[in-house]
Amino acid sequence: MGGVRIARYTTGDDPVYGLVDGAGEKIAEVTGDPLYQRIELTGATTTVEDVRLLAPVIPRSKIIGIGRNYRDHAAEMGSEVPDEPMMFLVPNTAVVGPGEPVVIPELTKEVSFEGELAVIIGRMCKDIEPEEVRKVIFGYTIANDVTARDLQRGDGQWARAKGLDTFCPLGPWIETDLDPQDVRIVTTLDGEIRQDGHSSDMVHGVAELISYASKAFTLLPGDVILTGTPAGVGPVVAGQRVEVDIDAIGTLANPFVSAER
Known about the structure:
- The chain is built from four helices and 20 strands.
- It has 261 residues and is mainly beta.
- It has two domains: 5-53, FAH (SH3 type barrels), CATH 2.30.30; 63-258, Fumarylacetoacetase-like, C-terminal domain (Fumarylacetoacetate hydrolase, domain 2, Alpha-Beta Complex).
- The longest helix is centred in the last third of the chain and has 11 residues, at 206-216.
- The radius of gyration is 17 Å and the shape is globular.
- The N and C termini lie far apart (47 Å).
């Protein structure tokens, strides 16, 4: 398969997949799940504005986050850059799609946004070297690694802080062909730019991250690796809207709301 954009969406029925045109406006429906099956066009077409986009992948196994992978972000958090990638796990119940609300529960009072490039694994792999990584990547999407800062500080580890329900928006679709070390990452809060970084500034590049993760875990199709966030992270409260734009992919936008009592 050449470079394509793959969306997961619904028109009110069961989720389906489709190929998105270069303008990000039209979708051609395909059969099956592209991660696991050979796809074919069904002949049905629609437009992005007439469907509800869903998270392009729901990891069946795991999401692996990477902490402090940009020097400027580590500095703004008052932390040192680790010598080796700092990994943490996020449950798949944290995943939501574009446009879906991020729900802030009562147990946190300090929530931050973190715009990131996300990598989706396409083939099972273990103990691979960086030069082999390209063949196991299915594609790329955008993530907002939402974080409860008060829980992050208080717990001493990050399972609750980054794994709360709805705290890992993914979308709007999967781009299968881009240079992961050459994309601009821009995050806006209510239309104002808060993050403006570039993936070339990663401390550990994508190939190194996936190789490193594979030495610890068997990576399975659909696993997602969050590659870290540039400087500019900040607080977000209910009623605000965060958009993360990566020029080669598109825009992931989510409103933030309070949990209903």
